[in-house]
């Protein structure tokens, strides 16, 4: 099978060639690792947020049940009513074991009647504020923390809302739009609102849930509970560190595979180019115009090497044919020239006009013979040139 038919066969049935498989492996493997890691992170973060919201909602239900049992009394109209004087100390005791959290109690009219961060003391109200997040020490640690916070803020999330547009949303005591949903009246019971997850301006992840306070099937208020989801951020940070490790591994793998690809493709091509240069300069033996180990490959580079080798052999065969043709032409031209030279030398020494005329006839015949021979050579060269420039076509 010729190289042309072999190449056509490879294009026909080997849709994925060996070189294409190597290139796909180099480009697809690192991307597959990164995509798999990112998908895993998204599912992992969603699961953590769901678990955190569920736990916080259960805590809010406990608070609402405790307030309904201990801070609700019957008013003059014999209707249950939430008493702020009872709700404030009870709410403070309930929220005290939970760090980085704040609870608000709304009355039926939508006003805040109790705040876990405000405690009545002998000298008046005492407002407690949460401690700021611990910042890493050292310039390098701070730089890494800053870059990570910027990266987290840049990532889009369907579950986390940025609070950068609203300065008040950065605190635990922020009252989100869920308050409008929970407009409490005695005729309209409160309904469960979806959680509100937001990212504060300082990078903290805050989760807010609300639960109605129900006594004897009457809604007397609502609890709004907000807590920092620090464990979610820590877990996601640990996973992102793992992703960074996978990325470094993928990068190293890409470099190694690229080096392998360069050695399997670029190096043989450079050796073929060097062989072509030596072939042009005539410094290559006719037996091995290309390196045998490259010509023995079973991929496209092997086909290229064998094509170059066959081209070199065809070129040498053509040069041999031209050399033989030149020798034959020189021999054919030399015979009439020798006859003409002999006749001219004889005419110079001859005095008989008849014999001189006969020699001139011989010279004329030899000249016509040379002219015919040159015309045949020209026609043959022109035909060969036309055939080399004309594309081959099938004929009947």
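^ Assign residues to that structure.
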């Amino acid at each position: 099978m010729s190289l042309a038919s072999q190449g056509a066969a490879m294009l026909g049935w080997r849709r994925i060639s060996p070189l294409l498989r190597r290139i796909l492996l180099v480009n697809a493997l690192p991307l597959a690792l990164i995509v798999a890691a990112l998908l895993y992170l998204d599912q992992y973060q969603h699961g953590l947020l769901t678990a955190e919201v569920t736990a916080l909602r259960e805590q809010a239900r406990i608070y609402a049940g405790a307030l309904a049992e201990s801070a609700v009394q019957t008013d003059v109209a014999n209707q249950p009513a939430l008493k702020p004087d009872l709700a404030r100390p009870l709410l403070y005791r309930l929220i005290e074991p939970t760090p980085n959290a704040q609870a608000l109690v709304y009355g039926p009219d939508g006003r805040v009647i109790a705040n876990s961060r405000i405690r009545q003391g002998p000298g008046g109200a005492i407002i407690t504020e949460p401690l700021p997040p611990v910042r890493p020490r050292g310039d390098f640690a701070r730089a890494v923390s800053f870059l990570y916070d910027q990266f987290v803020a840049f990532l889009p999330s369907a579950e986390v809302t940025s609070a950068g547009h609203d300065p008040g949303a950065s605190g635990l005591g922020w009252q989100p739009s869920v308050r409008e949903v929970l407009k409490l009246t005695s005729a309209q019971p409160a309904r469960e609102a979806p959680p509100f997850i937001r990212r504060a301006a300082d990078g903290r992840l805050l989760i807010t849930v609300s639960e109605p306070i129900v006594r004897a099937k009457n809604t007397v208020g609502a609890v709004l509970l907000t807590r920092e989801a620090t464990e979610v951020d820590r877990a996601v940070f640990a996973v992102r560190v793992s992703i960074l490790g996978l990325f470094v591994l993928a990068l190293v793998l890409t470099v190694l595979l690229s080096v392998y690809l360069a050695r399997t493709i670029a190096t043989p091509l450079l050796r073929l180019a060097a062989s072509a240069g030596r072939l042009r300069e005539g410094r290559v033996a006719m037996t091995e115009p290309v390196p045998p180990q490259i010509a023995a490959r079973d991929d496209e580079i092997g086909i290229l090497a064998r094509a170059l080798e066959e081209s070199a052999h065809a070129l040498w065969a053509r040069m041999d044919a031209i050399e033989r043709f030149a020798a034959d032409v020189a021999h054919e031209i030399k015979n009439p020239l020798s006859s003409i030279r002999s006749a001219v030398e004889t005419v110079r020494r001859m005095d008989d006009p008849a014999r001189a005329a006969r020699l001139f006839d011989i010279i004329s015949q030899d000249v016509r013979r040379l002219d015919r021979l040159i015309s045949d050579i020209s026609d043959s060269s022109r035909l060969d040139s036309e055939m080399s420039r004309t594309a081959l076509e099938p004929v009947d």
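The chain has two domains: 32-129+138-243, 313-387.
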